[in-house]
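Worked Example 4.2. Consider the chain below.
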Amino acid sequence: MALLAVMLTVVQAAGAAPDAASGSTTGDSATTAANEVVLYYFHGTHRCKTCRSMEAFTQEALETKFKKQLETGALQWKVLNMEEPENEHFTKDFELVSSSLVLVELNGGDVVRHEVLQDAWKLVRDEPRFIEYVQESVNEYLK
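Applying the procedure from the previous section yields the following structure tokens:
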């Protein structure tokens, strides 16, 4: 975990946090405030219908329950292509093997904890359960 924090700090200092696509919250990670939560959706260059559904359902889950937190920046939603050179480090940082949702808690820009939402793939074909799972997971990080 310490190595992950160091690696993310180096990336943040270099300003390597790219803008996210698909209407997600953007901004330089180096300007991160204390006690922030970021939900990343990492995807590959070639995206299937299921991958696109995962992104859409997650966005819906966040906008319906966490609109205020998204507006204030207490919660950020970032969609990143993990195959782009500036994002490849996330694959190692979070031990990703495919498209993934990853919750990250930051304190003053340092990673406090992270969680790959493993059940997202199991639930993506059941939109209501998927949305509930994402909302419950985010809520735990915002406590």
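The domain at 2-142 is CATH 3.40.30.10 (Glutaredoxin). The first strand starts at residue 36 and ends at 43. Compare this with Example 4.1 before moving on.
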